[in-house]
Design goal:
Elements (H helix, E strand, L loop, with lengths): L4 H31 L11 H6 L11 H17 L7 E4 L9 H20 L2 H15 L4 E6 L3 E5 L6 E5 L5 E11 H8 L6 H9 L7 E10 L13 E7 L9 E5 L4 E2 L15 H27 L3 E4 L14 E4 L7 E3 L7 H18 L2 H4 L11 H12 L3 H25 L16 E4 L2 H8 L2 H14 L12 H11 L10 H35 L7 H9 L1
Parallel strand pairs: 10-11
Antiparallel strand pairs: 1-13, 2-3, 2-9, 4-5, 5-6, 6-7, 7-8, 10-12
Helix pairs in contact: 3-5, 8-9
Amino acid sequence: MKIAVELHEKKKAMVAAMQNDRLPYWRLWRELADYYLPSRYTYLMSDKERAVRNARNPHILDGTGTRAARVLAAGMMNGITSPSRPWFRLRLPNFDDASNKEARMWLDEVARRMLLVMAESNFYNGLAVMYLDLVIFGPSAMLIYEDYESVIRCYNPNLGEFYICNSERLAVNTFARSFRMSAAQMEARWGKEALSQQVQSALQQGGAQRQAEFEICHLIEPNDTGDKLVPKRFKYRELYWEAAAPTGQVLSAAGYNELPGIFPRYELSGNDAYGTCPAMDALGDVIQLQHETKRKAQGLDKMVSPPIIADIQLQHRPSALLPNGITYLSGVNNVGVKPAYTVNIPIDALTMDIRDLSSRIRETFHNDLFLMISQLDTVRTAAEIYERKEEKLVMLGSVLERFENEALDPAVNRIFSIMDRAGLLPPVPNGLEGADIEIQYESILSTAQRAVTTAPTERWLQLVAQLSPVYPKAVNIPNFDELLRGYGADIGVPARYIRTQEEVAQLNAQADQLAQAREAAATGGAFVDSAQTLSQTDVGGGANALQQLLGA
């Protein structure tokens, strides 16, 4: 399709500016890729390097850094968005949906269908890749599109091919990338007529030319420029064009009601769009670990097979010894064979330092949190393990909050909107049309983070219990009903396991009535017993009574 040449030039300049802003990170990301995932991120290589790349990892001699990063990524995946358990629920803000059975059932059914769509698509596969990007490079990205076969389809742009920039709220609202697609893929995506003459020529030649790759530019931005490229009702728009195509010719332009992707960062500093991550913090230790591992291997090799000096007379007698760096000397009598120099490396000290480096790397990646029990040197009590785990969870608090805001919230909203437009959600109950829906995360890490706040409650109740024998009025201070409800919510007790306030009030009323009935029954029984006792008491009736009266 054709668009205004001036508008297209502005978009090209915008993408170029975003590429320049990302340039300072290029060298750092390249070093991170070399020491963590060297064979994966080819977009951090030049075209010449990509043409001759191989599967060797020349920088990695000890894989502790890579394994530690994968443990953190897997731990976050299982602890935040585990495919095996529900990790979020829906509720109505400022409304106790637990008291409205119809609303609660509708929200539970919506969440169930959303989790089913996530499980049936490649959503969790995309999340796994995104978590690894997050802990190794800082920024990560996943595009979420509507799909006819699986409702949604997710794509992970490789680091090095995309650029991002922040809005005034320091949230990513603009995404661009430069990537490659084959001519056959482009034809299947946009149709032959939308392609440039160069790509159409490759398709006509057929054969290997159909697999020839061409550079594509992709831009997602807010639809607030007023140029009417897409209808104004859409909040975001998306453009594709060929890098080599004439200015003004684009492959497609589309509008979206919500941002069609999620772009979380591990940590941010100021207006930084890309952020930092644990792999950057551990990079120095990882490089030192590779250096010491190499030197230790070289030292052991020289100790086992040292370079030696041999008499010149042994030069043509290879069976005299196993050659390994032999230096032949002439003019020296009775040299025989001896080491050129003595190699005596401090194996124990070097091994201990390598072990210390590995421990520091795993600690930087929070492996002691996710592998706590398996790494304990002695048997500990369950209470101690629980306390240690809660203490370490505080370190991930800010990361978890950021990930929920930048990844999970927009992902759930995007999937909900796609399913709503496709008619895959149950009918909305009366009175809930247009109501805002709030997301509450029930993942392991979210629940554990909230459980940390229960410690003050427990200490306060212990104090009340200790004071009640000497100060009985202390038990009147806590609001036990609300306290128990809040405590259950903090430790992740499902709402369906907690009775509503109306149900509790009804049960309390029934209990009060039963207590009153028992008290009345006990009082009535006492009266009956008293009457029976009086009736059986000899008070001098009959003749005795007459005699008593006469005597009186």
